[in-house]
Design a protein that fits this description.
Blueprint lengths: L1 H92 L1 H14 L11 H60 L23 H92 L1 H14 L11 H68 L1 H4 L2
Length: 395
């Protein structure tokens, strides 16, 4: 019995020693594992903290770049809108010279007779109308091009705004994550979030997205700058062309009116001389009629003498010098009357010709007066509005 007891105690002792050794080893392994896992967890968390900070820095960089590009794009949109507004003002400003030119052409249709001619003034006015219509078409084309460019810029702006909004949201979320620590309140487990979303973007795709947005915005801003330069050049060139043509038209008007003034002055001088000549011719006709009338008494005297002497008796009815003289006197008076009558007829014919010429001169003067009234009082006075409003036409 004692032997069995001693054997049992020995077994119990051995088992106890073995268990203690195993327990001690387990404790040592546990302590090592605790230290190891604590260290690994700490290093992993520190690594994540570092990566979070790197990510925050990366977001900050791209957020700054996107925001800078957004501001530049906003400014370029404002600049192009200002350029477009100038184009629209320039287009509106062409309406006045176009109206003036077409009105002048309409007024000049009121010219009369020989003055209703396709002269240099009309040629230049038609050229001015065509030029203005071409300018209006070109300005409208530039406005349409600016609208399309503004649409591209606004599309880039929308993309940049969306990108910036997302980056601001991401920055806030990652900053919040970076602020979390083991002692933070409200910690909870979210098992559904412990995964990699297959639809999520890769870092390369992330940077490419913002890079492409920035590149496209820069490209469109360059195009917009070129469009603004083209708009400015178009407005400057068309303004110069319009002013140059306006001066050409005004010079044509000046030359034409000067020619008409000279022609009208010559016509008036001729009319005055013709009126004087008509007066002289009327006096001449009156004098001729009086001269013819004055031949009647001498003719009667000669006829009376011849008739009286025809009663001389017998041999006294002689062809003496007196008889020959009286017959010659009658013939002479008849010749004088015929000559005076012929001259009177010629003078009356000439008077009618002078009257006809006077009427023609008066009509020509009326035509020139009408033309001068149209070109000076209507057209040139109307064209002066282009000078008064030059600040509106100067694009």
């Amino acid at each position: 019995y004692q032997r069995r007891v001693r054997g049992s105690n020995a077994n119990q002792y051995l088992t106890s020693s073995t268990e203690r050794t195993s327990s001690n080893n387990l404790r040592l392994e546990s302590e090592r594992l605790r230290c190891e896992t604590a260290d690994r967890t700490r290093r992993t968390q520190n690594d994540i903290n570092s990566k979070l900070q790197d990510r925050i820095d990366n977001i900050t960089y791209w957020k700054t770049e996107v925001d800078r590009q957004l501001q530049k794009t906003d400014q370029e949109i404002a600049n192009l809108m200002s350029s477009k507004k100038q184009l629209e003002q320039a287009h509106v400003a062409t309406q006045l010279p176009h109206e003036v030119a077409t009105t002048c052409l309409k007024h000049r249709e009121g010219r009369l007779s020989i003055d209703l001619v396709h002269d240099d003034v009309e040629i230049q006015l038609l050229k001015e109308v065509e030029m203005i219509e071409n300018i209006q078409a070109l300005l409208q084309q530039r406005i349409s091009e600016s609208d399309r460019q503004l649409s591209e810029l606004r599309h880039c702006k929308s993309n940049l705004e969306l990108d910036l909004k997302d980056k601001c949201s991401s920055y806030g979320l990652d900053s919040r994550c970076a602020g979390l620590h083991n002692g933070s309140l409200g910690m909870a487990l979210h098992n559904n979030s412990v995964k990699i979303d297959p639809k999520s973007a890769t870092p390369a795709a992330y940077e490419a997205f913002s890079h492409d947005n920035i590149t496209e915005a820069e490209k469109q801003r360059v195009s917009s700058c070129r469009q603004r330069e083209l708009n400015e050049h178009t407005m400057h060139q068309t303004s110069n062309d319009l002013h140059k043509q306006a001066e050409t038209v005004n010079e044509s008007f000046r030359i034409r009116t000067q020619e008409m003034i000279v022609a009208k002055t010559n016509l008036e001088e001729n009319l005055n001389q013709t009126i004087l000549e008509i007066g002289s011719m009327n006096e001449n006709i009156a004098a001729l009629k009086e001269a013819i009338r004055l031949k009647d008494s001498p003719m009667r005297v000669a006829h009376m003498r011849l008739n009286t002497r025809s009663y001389r008796p017998n041999i006294e009815l002689v062809r003496d010098p007196v008889q020959y003289g009286l017959v010659e006197e009658v013939a002479q008076i008849n010749d004088s009357i015929e000559a005076l009558a012929a001259k009177l007829n010629e003078s009356e014919t000439k008077l009618r010709a002078l009257e006809t010429n006077k009427k023609g001169l008066e009509e020509d003067i009326a035509v020139k007066t009408n033309s001068l009234n149209i070109d000076q009082s209507q057209c040139l006075r109307l064209r002066k509005t282009l000078v008064w409003r030059r600040h509106e036409i100067n694009f």
